[in-house]
Predict the structure.
Amino acid sequence: MERSLVLFALVAGFALWLGGAAAARRNISSGALKSALPVFYPIASLVVAMLVFLVTIPSSGRFFSPGHDLGNGYLLGALGALLSGVVLSSRIGASVKSESPSQRATYVASPFALGLSGVAASLLIKHDTLWIGLLGLAIGWTTTTGLLLFGMMQSRAAEVGQRPEPLAIVAGAGFCALLSAAVALGEQHGSAHFYATSNLISYGVIALAIAVAIPLSLMLSPIGDLFMHVDRRDSGSVLNQNDYWNILWARGIRAVAALIAVGAIDRAVCMRLVNDAEPATGIARLTYALVGASPISHAMAEGTLLGLLIWWICSSIPSKKKANEVDPHGSSSQPTALVWQKSGLAVIVLMMAVMAAYQQLLGFGISLLLLGSYVAVTLSILRAFEPERVVHVPEGQDLPEAAQPLGTALQMTLLGIAATLLVLYRVYVTYYGDPVATAFTDQYASFGTVIGIAFPFFLSGLLTKCVSKDPEPSALKLIRCCVCGLVLLATPALMLLLWGEKTVIAFLIALAISAALSTATGLGITLKSQIVRLFPAVIALGVSLAVCEWSHYLLNMEDWTRLQKERVVVQVVATMIALVVGSEYVSRFAAARFARASQSEGSAR
């Protein structure tokens, strides 16, 4: 039964991604990808993945896991991020004016579907330590996503207006990491029993099977458009009042269809599981009839409602506007105080739900709760893919305030990353044990909190500084990107070496806070500035995954003498400074030389 569910998730995810790839091939030319993503960066991502795969082949030594679990997972994650990123990137460079609702749904569903297939493939590949392979998959996906975004910032399309595709790419990385963490927590939780049989099934496989509902609900979302006869419209087309209300009803039906899909798959998976809960009485009986008696169903239902509530908070605006007033820039024109208010309230609601579900199902419940919230994340991104239209109604009449779709999708994406980081914190506590009693009561917690909040923003600034209008070879920019990657790995390693778990627990929580703080930064005007706002969350996700993956190697160094630690710290810090300063001045020298060569060629002509 376990293998059948894993194969079902693998085939379903890959089939849904093929739909997005087919839609891209039919509607987008081959030159569109080159204008949105220089070909150098997909090739570099593949080369890095192969190098990691080869370097991790040895199964002995301090930093190599037995069974090649890290290398296998990293390669799978890199391939998944490349395939899904290419489909969405090609849409950026194309002038898509008219799309059907089903085509838009396949584009948005492609990264989530392929993430589902990647996690399923990790379960099918022979492994010695499953959670090492799953976290390796998430690390490969996140690293490749960062490289693709870095390449997009240097493309010809980087100076165009705001686009929803980078949000789908980043949300796909967050979903892959969240699902990997959910399966790892489920494997640690144990196995469930079936009624009238002696079969056992892992809770991790149950989470994987239920996660099929996330991309599937997106594929079912065009039902609302078909039911309300919302036809294909170009961006900027004029609608009458009836068409406007039909679109609103179609969006409502879209959300209902997603809820039905999640509920149906959840009930199909959980209806035969043995439930040890007490018999329901009173109102609880009605709840059990709608949701099911399994605690897994309860956690998924709570998470879905949580996501819809946060989506409503992020998209609600306490005013109306006159008809025919169109805001082409999304939430970037909203008052800063209003964006802060909505972001702050959404973060508070998210943290309250996490606190309530932290101990549910011995930690497995929090992953299910936040996995269910991704239904709202995907729907908000799908809403941002819709073309903007002008509504023509009699002068002076009011319409419901139109949500700022791209700004709302940005907030939902970043909150989804913050939720994933909280689940990774639960993974760390589960696999490395509870923190010591002084972990939050001494000065080390303050160090971890400050570094965790500031580090993603510092490294994001250092990374995006590489992207300028000065001429510079792509290979040199990639070298500077690799330097940032080394700094990303070295900083938490030094923290673990010096202070151990006393600071890393607070550090992981602070990384989630930094991702949540990014929601108040706004969209930006161009695609480049929009991607810059996504980088702190992507970096926070990568750092958190690295801490969870390699802490068991670094914590063994806590017993080193002070002299040994000082020697290593001096060597690592000196190397980091030399790499950062060297890459900066080499970059300036190369840019000046490249500019002089361009001027001499121009004067010769």
